[in-house]
Amino acid sequence: MSPLPRRSLLKAAAVAGVAAQFSWALGANNASAAPAAGTGAADPVTLDWLEDGGLGAAPGSTLGVPWPMGTFQDDQTFAVTDAAGQDVPVQSWPIAYWPDGSLKWTAHAVSSGDGKLTLAPGQPAAPGKKVTVDKSGGTIDVSTGVVDVKIGKSGATLIKSVRRGSTEIAKNGRLVLIRQPEIEDEDQGTVKTERFEGAISSVTVEQEGPVRAVVRIDGKHRKGSRSWLPFSIRLYFYAGADSFRMVHTITYDGTQEPGKASGDFIRGLGVRFTVPMRDQSYDRHVRIGGEGTGLLREAVKGITGLRRDPGIAVQEAQFAGKKLPDPSTWDQRVTTRLQYIPEWGDYTLSQLSADGFTLRKRTKKGHGWIGAGGGKRASGFGYVGGTSGGFSFGLRDFWERHPSQLDIRDAQTDEAEVTLWLWSPEAQPMDLRFYHDGMGQDTFPEQLEGLNITYEDYEPEFGTPYGIARTSELLFWANESTPTPETLAQQVEAVRVLPQLAAPPKQLIKASVFGPGLYSEPDRSTPAKAKIEDHLDFLFTYYKDQVEQRRWYGFWDHGDIMHTYDTVRHQWRYDIGGYAWDNSELSPDLWLWFAYLRSGRSDIFRFAEAMTRHTGEVDVYHLGQWAGLGTRHGVQHYADSAKQQRIANTTYRRYYYFLTADERVGDLMHANVDSDETFLVLDPIRKIRTEPYTPDRHALSIGFGTDWSGLVSAWLTEWERRGPKWEKAKARVLSTMETIAAQPNGFVQGSGLYDLDTGKFAVAAAPVVGVSHLSAVFGLNELCAELIHLVDMPRFNEAYFDYCRFFNATKAEQAARYGSNFGTLLLFQGHSRLDAYAAVKTGDDKLAKRAWDKFYNSDGYKESAPWRTEKVEGPTALVAGSEATWVSTNDTALYGLAAIENLALLGNKMP
Q1: Quick count: other Cβ atoms within 10 Å of Cβ 551?
Q2: What does pLDDT average to over the chain?
Q3: Are strands 78-81 and 61-66 parallel, antiparallel or unpaired?
Q4: Tens digits of per-residue pLDDT, 849-901?
Q5: Per-residue model confidence as pLDDT tens digits over 99-119
Q6: For residues 410-430, average pLDDT
Q7: Largest interatomic CA distance in the chain
Q8: I need a surface site. Which of 111, 200, 812, 869 has the fewest CB within 10 A?
Q9: pLDDT reading at 810 higher than 50
Q10: Of 178, 215, 181, 179, which Cα lies nearest the Cα of 200?
Q11: Can you give the pLDDT at residue 43?
């Protein structure tokens, strides 16, 4: 990216003059929209579950469905039926609009229905048991028709009570945080901790039924006068459900400094409930999930395996969780000695790694623990209660997000306590200190030397976790009695894989969303197409297997992948600067989502979902001076000093949001609307500028590639969603498109001086060639395809098509068009998709031919690559498995996107 000397390029009057050349007015309602498609009745859409089993024991499912432009207006209603033609109650709402005001995406929530469902225009069926919300009293009262929940409006108790009928199943739901103020290596020092509890600052009812209700609770963890670690909790309720879902987000705002032992080290982070216990101790039951749907199934006072036999029917009833007959009917040799049978009140399952959990129990506090089993990967599920009612609970991605833990305490008393630990207090404290001491890199020249050896862009005090976040998902059930083994297995399955409805790929393609024409369903109709499909399958399978083999798991790491492989060590370069965690470099997020959009494959969806949860939370700052920026790839997700828009890019979140209507991801996208302000705080190319530059509100240097693509994706999304700032966002989309197109060299100009107040780039006085190989590989092509479809602005289209034409052109062709060539470039295979897009949009057959030539015969992956893995085992590797030494994540993301888009655009013109 070329720096822009303000004195030579700023042309104050140019913007107004060039704007007059465009036929639309910025303030016009529809003038900026592309022509709307004809309005007409839409075909019904078949919805299906990503995995077999339907809704199962989950409370409900919500999905997004797209519609072609002009099909439906804002007042359209929708109905859902099952395979038998029976009505399924549904709640629908808009989540995005086309520029002409018609519905682009609608969200639909159901709380019943198995097998395939059909969505069509019509009057929605009302649920027999509606969700209702009462905000009038001191609590927010939500009823699903089966379960009644009281939510606190202030204080430390988030959920005051959970009742089923007249029976209180759980109460006093609260957040728990254990802080360790000092951390010592090895065996030195004394461990001290302090406990904080969540304190509510605000509660918002976001939806009120009749099928789905959502309540958001925000606050911080508090002890005494100190409040820290902000949280945002959403509670989801569905009509007729005996369960509810919690989405739990924390944002780290503590202090941890490298080289210092004192700081805000999290020792435990959890959600805790009190569970009333009413039954006799022999009718109280504990269930803890092990591997798969395996369960520890015990009673607080067990009457099986005793020296004296109460009777086989009594024993079997207890194991099944059924109420036992009166002890007077048992063998009296047992009945008269019941007081001598221990009551086991405390249970703990801890999963400190992805490869092992341990389970132990004790009678009560102050007495010794005994082992109760163990295994590899626990489901994260538990239950405590009795024949008169009980509480099931589960933490999603339990072993993947280790260290995690489940506690049951005091089950022998009138009130048991359950804690779901998102960070186990038995693990080492959460140590987020930067991993080295700087090694003398105090100046920019020294830091650039460091970059040249480890690929890490270091800068003192930049490798901070302050402001990163993590979101977890939990499920809770209010059971009228101890569930049957079959019901428990369904609850376990819902915790492990939350059921998700989805629209088929053909509906996404028909609706022209996410870049019209950029993806199509897999096609193996010719050998050449089949070979590319095989390669795409190979790459996805390889990364899925590498996650498992290399154990890319953990609270902060789950969802990310590594950047580059070390062929000598037979290991990914997890400890080498910018070669370690990928942090969305060159858009693997896009590759995965496009792979899902075209295939509808559940395994790809789940992989992409985990990556979206990670990259949108952990790799991006949500508080502090760098809020709205993300961190470049590195050994720690926040380590690198390159804090940039390209990683915070809203493009990477759009897919998951529109496919699921997930509110948390919606928050993340909305938070980026004002990210242009971040360029006042931090200059992304400060270390390589050759001329003095001070950020100026009216002349901020912003690149047209990695910078603008991140900004415009947030603006476009806010505009489509009709968010609180959508009119400003729309204006920013249009004004920046206009003033990029007005540059002497369009996109090839590279960057411009942006005015925060007007939302426009100043039009440079002289042409400059400022092309980077990175400009288009963070979603620019996919975004421009959407913008060109949405906005009627021919000059912008031509500016982008020109960029597409000349990136992969010869240096002589570049110089003939722009006066100089583009210098040394790379990533030609990834850019072949730009050739393909421009070829289709302009009808250029020569460009179409070049697209396939660059795809097959430039850099990246070639047909001559091995396209297979090799075995690796001891003593070469830590664990036995496989490797493909020729694979890198940069090449994978670029090949994946180029293959998908080229097949869709030019599959009929393959060589």
Answers
A1: 16
A2: 94
A3: unpaired
A4: 999 999 999 999 999 999 999 999 999 999 999 999 999 999 999 999 999 99
A5: 999 999 999 999 998 899 999
A6: 98
A7: 102
A8: 812
A9: yes
A10: 215
A11: 93
Tens digits of residue pLDDT in 266-292: 999 999 999 999 999 999 999 999 999
User: Residue 185: its pLDDT value, please?
Assistant: 73
Q: How far apart are CA 86 and CA 58, in angstroms?
A: 21
Angle at 847 between CA 843 and CA 852, to 5 degrees: 120
Tokens for 263?
């700081």
Q: Give the pLDDT score at 17.
A: 37
- Cis upstream peptide for 124 (omega within 30°): no
First-to-last C-alpha distance (Å) of the chain? 34
In which region does residue 843 sit, left (phi positive, over 0), alpha (psi from -120 to 50) or beta (all else)? Answer: left
Print burial letters for 627-653: b (CB count within 10 Å at least 16), e (below 16).
bbbbbbbbbbbbbbbbbbbbbbbbbbb
Across-strand partners of 288?
Answer: 296, 382
The residue whose two tokens read 């890490």 is: 456
Q: How far apart are CA 232 and CA 588, in angstroms?
A: 28
Core vs surface per residue 444-461: b (16+ CB within 10 A) or e: eeebeebbeebbbbbbee
Cα→Cα distances 530→98, 521, 526, 536, Å: 35, 12, 6, 10
In 3D space, the residue among 399, 375, 380 whose CA is nearest the CA of residue 548 turns out to be: 399
Residues 778 and 587 sit within 8 Å (Cβ to Cβ):
yes
Tokens 């959403």 belong to which residue?
234
Q: What are phi and psi of 9, to 5 degrees?
A: -115, -20
Tell me whether strands 284-289 and 45-49 are parallel, antiparallel or unpaired: unpaired
Closest by alpha carbon to 436, among 415, 418, 454, 416? Answer: 454
Q: Indicate the burial class of 19 (C-beta count within 10 angstroms; 0-12, 13-18, 19 or more).
A: middle
Other CB atoms within 10 A of residue 413 CB: 14
Percentage of the chain lying above the pLDDT 70 cut: 95
**Tokens 């008169």, located at residue:** 388
> Mapping DSSP to helix (H, G, I), strand (E, B) and coil, where does residue 887 land?
coil
- Helical H segments across 296-443, by residue range: 312-320, 332-335
As given in the structure block, the two tokens for residue 653 are 């979140």
Q: How far apart are CA 700 and CA 721, in angstroms?
A: 27
Partner residues linked to 904 by β-bridges: none
Instruction: Give residue 190's pLDDT.
Output: 79
pLDDT tens-place string over residues 352-363: 999 999 999 999
* Separation between Cα atoms, residue 527 and residue 524, nearest integer Å: 7
**pLDDT tens by residue, 48-76:** 999 999 999 999 999 999 999 999 999 99
**pLDDT tens across 752-780, in order?**
999 999 999 999 999 999 999 999 999 99
Q: Which of 181-195, 461-475, 831-845 has the weakest average pLDDT?
A: 181-195
Is residue 710 within 8 A of residue 649, CB to CB? The reply is yes
Is the pLDDT reported for residue 11 higher than 80?
no
Residue 646: closest CA among 686, 677, 675:
675
Buried b (16+ CB within 10 A) or exposed e, 278-305: ebbbbbbbbbbbbeebbbbbbbbbbbee
> Cα separations (Å) of 36 from 15, 40, 96, 494, 517?
29, 12, 15, 41, 17
Preceding omega of 210 cis (within 30 degrees of 0): yes
Length of the chain: 911
**CA-to-CA distance for 826 and 823, rounded, in angstroms?**
10
- Judged on CB neighbours under 10 Å (0-12, 13-18, 19+), 72 is buried
In whole angstroms, give the CA distance from residue 554 to residue 381: 18
pLDDT confidence of residue 12: 32
730-739 pLDDT tens trace: 999 999 999 9
Tell me the Ramachandran region of residue 633: left when phi exceeds 0, alpha when psi lies from -120 to 50, beta otherwise.
beta
Helix residue ranges per DSSP H, 286-365: 312-320, 332-335
527-549 and 588-599 helices cross at what angle (nearest 10)? 120
